[in-house]
Amino acid sequence: MAIELLSALGAGSGLDTKAIVDALVEAKRAPQAEQINSRISSTEATISAYGQVSAALEGVRSAFQNLNDADDLSAVVLRNSSTAVSVDAGAGAEAGQYAMSITRLASAESRSSTGFSDASAALSGGAGLTLTITQGSASPQTQTLTVATDTPAGIVAAINDADLGLSARIVDTGAASAGLRIVVSGASGAEGAFTIATGVAGFDFASQDSAALDASFVLNGLTYQRSTNEVSDVLPGVTLSLQAVASDQSFSLDSTSIVAETALRELVAAYNAAESILSNLVDPDGAGDDAGVLQGDSVIGMVQRSLRSMVSDESNTPSGAYSRLLDFGIETDRTGQLVIDEAVFSQRVRAGFGDLSTLLTAGTNSQSLFSSDPAGLAGEALKSLDELLKSRGPLLGATSRLQERIADQEEALLDLEDRMTRVYDRYLSQFIAMETLIEQMNGLSDSLTSTFDTLPFSPNKK
Description:
Layout: H1 2-7, H2 17-65, H3 70-73, E1 75-80, E2 85-89, E3 96-104, E4 108-112, E5 129-135, E6 141-147, H4 152-161, E7 167-172, E8 180-188, E9 194-197, E10 207-210, E11 215-219, E12 222-226, E13 230-231, E14 238-242, E15 246-256, H5 258-282, H6 298-312, E16 330-332, E17 338-340, H7 342-351, H8 353-361, H9 376-389, H10 394-454
């Protein structure tokens, strides 16, 4: 401060008032502003740390979601050498051996009209015509369709616009005479059968190009009939695509624990990532600039305890000899990280897959977070994570309070600047008053000196 004041002194012209005032005000403002900015930086660092925690917990939540539904854990491996049927096994598919014969494929009715040469030529003298369409096999339904423009093109348009499940088009057969025909197609299956009467002499749809038939097949001794060749309602989670008539076909679905093993490994990785982040944020000797930012933070302490209980507590739906994830070869090391004992893990997950599924999911699918029914270890973990991460939960609640604190500190900075402006103005007016007084005293001094110099006894008089 002394150096700043000395440097503000002028050479022979008095004090540099503005420089002195600036230095005095800055000396008063700087420590207060530094203190406020330090609080803002500390609060921002805490908010950033909370953001890291939330992101880590989202990773854990995603991992538990993959373990929450029994159907998601149940997986089968398809073994199929048949070219007559394609098998697609998805969620909910069950293991089994299947013998199959396909006796008939599903097909759709297709009819073609009498040949003609001009699609725009009138068929009944321009008077319009009425089509009588009968659809169905078991319970035929008849409808009449008025065709305003009695041409082949008009018939095609009327059928396509009628929303009867029929599609019509004009094709060119290439015949030298009357090579054009209207082809009408219906839905696959026996109930897709139809007939069309035109009421026009010499023009009809009597030619049946293909018949409406149901698919027919035998699966493990039972005979099935379906209207399409894509069958998804015979075996749970399995779609059969019938492709050819054939006998003595077979395929198998074998249980596998690979999905569960993969999901558990992903949980271990997500948990370890979260545990590492939390541990570093509370350890001042950790790595990075954010090490120890949340040391002693009660919210993070609660989050750590909750996270650890998710993997170490007993399930509320134990099964067989298993009640915890740790029973399946997943262990906690001295640093708090999860490690997998590969030999124990693989053997127990495969041998005890049913027990593992029950322990994790309670045998349920898509259970609501608000249900009071037992949800298994994964379901209960998801409930806990939802409480931690919801908008009014501890993490976002603490973040919101910290953001309000930053707003208060920013307001304090504005107030400080206002106060310093007033201090500056006061100091400046005081120094100006001082300079005015000094100038007056200097003027008086000069006047007295001049007067004394003119006196007879003045030593300066010559």
